[in-house]
Design a protein that fits this description.
It is built from eleven helices and twelve strands. By secondary structure, it is an alpha/beta fold. It has one domain: Spore Coat Polysaccharide Biosynthesis Protein SpsA, Chain A (Alpha-Beta Complex), CATH 3.90.550. The relative contact order is 0.19.
Length: 345
């Protein structure tokens, strides 16, 4: 089993130095690509290339209607949830039916209670709202799993996990993601591009095995939708739990999110479970949403939960088939390992 990562200062310094040297080497190898998202197309693994070749045509207008369960957990900070709901309300949902589960993790503010009441009054034939209240310590995995369980009567075709700090930008975002998840063969978790409020990239996908458990390559760099990377869906190791769409039966097949991972890395674990079942995780890069990241919790990693993942998955993290073997795992971005032979790539 791969040795688990260390939280020591010396390990972090060594990782930073290694990453900087690898970035310099990568710049010499591909100077025109190292700062663009297109480098991810240059450094694709065999599994990614195989999956890309199986991509099916997607039609966001026609096709069977879907019943979509949208799960939005929150604890107060109603201004964030309200913003998320307002942007969701502007979505063109086509002929699909939506159930929005307002997963209230013990909110106490009057403003939140009033907001929930007003939102429930907006239920319609195509978009229903349901309030689920769970008085418990924060456990992102459990909150989502309980919502799926308690909305079983809706008989959802797809489950859409959505942080309350998400803001939809394009009016066809939900249609594109729902259609892709419905029509693509062997599909696991589906994500999209997330940006900061200043429109710089926050998340393209999760680079499995990078840094601690996974990182967000291209983070903090300009969003340029004209780049080739954004022109079609891409197979990846994992997508973030902040926005994840998955077929309901697939969610249940892997028993949902792991409730022993309450705050961190449950998205990576979920995607690895899907990979183990033979599913492919995808990102639809031209769907862009704002992520007002970690507004309510610490940004510090949970080392206990990281160690749990390494005990469970071992080499699957460090040698994930959807990550090119020539990449430096100590770097957050896609950069070559120091001793990778460039001709092999």
């Amino acid at each position: 089993m791969q040795k688990r990562p260390s939280s020591s200062l010396s390990y972090r310094i060594f990782g930073k130095v290694s990453a900087l040297l690898s970035e310099a080497r990568t710049f010499c190898f591909a100077p025109s690509l190292v700062r663009t998202a297109d480098i991810h197309l240059l450094l694709q693994s065999p599994a990614q290339k195989t999956a890309q070749a199986t991509l099916c045509p997607i039609d966001i207008i026609e096709g069977p209607s879907q019943r979509i369960l949208v799960i939005i957990p929150f604890r107060d900070k109603w201004e964030l949830t309200s913003q998320c709901l307002a942007s969701l309300g502007r979505q063109n949902v086509g002929h699909h039916k939506i159930l929005v589960a307002l997963v209230d993790n013990g909110s106490v503010e009057k403003k939140t209670a009033e907001g929930i009441t007003q939102t429930l009054l907006k239920s319609s034939a195509t978009c229903e709202f349901r309030h689920l209240r769970y008085e418990t310590d924060f456990n992102f995995s459990a909150l989502n799993n309980w919502a799926v369980r308690d909305c079983a009567d809706f008989q959802a075709d797809q489950v859409f996990l959505c942080n309350n700090d998400i803001e939809f930008l394009q009016e066809d975002s939900l249609l594109k993601l729902v259609s892709f998840t419905r029509d693509q063969k062997n599909v696991g978790a589906v994500g999209c591009t997330l940006v900061y409020p200043d429109r710089k990239v926050q998340h393209l996908f999760i680079y499995v095995g990078s840094k601690i458990v996974g990182s967000h390559p291209h983070k903090g760099r300009p969003l340029e939708l004209t780049q080739a990377w954004y022109q079609k869906p891409r197979p990846v190791g994992a997508v973030t739990g902040a926005i994840t769409l998955v077929k309901a039966q697939v969610y249940k097949e892997v028993a949902g999110l792991d409730e022993t991972l309450p705050t961190s890395y449950q998205d990576v674990d979920f995607c690895l479970k899907l990979q183990a079942k033979g599913y492919v995780n995808w990102v639809v890069p031209d769907v862009v949403m704002i992520h007002h990241e970690t507004q309510t919790r610490s940004k510090e990693p949970s080392w206990g939960e990281a160690y749990r993942l390494y005990e469970r998955w071992g080499q699957v993290i460090w040698k994930n088939p959807f990550v090119h073997e020539g990449l430096n795992r100590r770097a957050e971005h896609y950069v070559l390992r120091l001793f990778t032979v460039a001709k092999r790539i």
